[in-house]
Amino acid sequence: MSFEKLIVFQKSYELAMEIFQATKQFPKEEAYALTDQLRRSSRSVCANIAEGYRKRVYPKVFVAKMLDSDGECSETIVHLMFAKDCGYISPDSFLDFRSRYEEIGKILGSLIRHPDTLINYKQGI
User: Fold this and answer.
1) What's residue 117's pLDDT?
2) What gap in Å lies between CA 11 and CA 114, rounded to an integer?
């Protein structure tokens, strides 16, 4: 199995791509601020999952990468809050993004509490 087959990776990658599309509509003056921060944090969620997967033979390192990914989920939600409050995304879009990042956070939380789930290669994560 590779990291691309992990449901948590697939969900986070899909969200990062949706955020990329959404941020194309942000004002130009946000290009090096909110747009950049939102794109980077959303991409870091799936990047940390991939890196953690490769390091899964070291359980403490694996957990650390899942914690990093979970932290990036929270950071992305905060940036989305700013995007909503600045009028760059709709409240409905914000709620959709938020609920999907919270779902990813729950999966990551499970992996953090039970790293053997992935380390032992069980499917469906």
Assistant:
1) 78
2) 20
